[in-house]
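Here is one chain, start to finish.
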Amino acid sequence: MIALTRRPALSLVNCEVGYAPRREIDLHLAFRQHEAYCRALRQLGVEVEILPPEEAFPDSVFIEDNAVILDELAVMTSMGTPSRQGEPALLFPVLALHRRLATIAPPATIEGGDILRMGKTLYVGVSTRTNREGVEAFRAIVEPLGYQVTPVGVQACLHLKTACTALDDETLLLNPDWIDSDALRAFRLLYVPAEEPFGANVLRLPDGVLAQTSSPLTRDEIESQGFAVTCVDLGEFAKADAGLTCLSLLIPS
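Its structure:
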């Protein structure tokens, strides 16, 4: 597995915010946290490729949103805010080395943080960043490849994966207060403690689960289910409404 990451730009201080109030980002600390994140990815069995910062795009460090990587192709997304709409094109030459590419264009919007893959089903969050046109454009690309697309309402967070991520093929970690989880009832659901609403955003990797130091109760619950957990501090990126999954784009071997 390869993880594409992008170094934070100095312009990160001007990033978009959605549900989080705007707070000052300590850039030096953000740089150190990003380096620690990349080290943790390597420790958990991932080959990490670090792309250079893009000053013209303050949010470009949140590389997950720019594409959806499937076995057959990479779907280049259509970003939900004007300031980010040039980001996916930055990845065309990189991802073309790994997959054939498909694209989605405005007025359809869809971001990678709203896509949760469970086997051949792709759950797509309908959020402030992903609209119904984006869901249907995505469906038109992936259903001929044998995937099923299931929309999920997102009410109180930025993306679907802010509130729901996979621990394994049968288990989801979930904050049920932020999304409509009815479509997910077929899975074993592990709920985050009310005190840690952002704890549901974890990253499943070959050699364990990556979680955040800000959610120790969630970490304990995951470990009690038999998963090995490594924690990192991403507090500066949380100020930008971002979590663990946002900072990497995983390319399965």
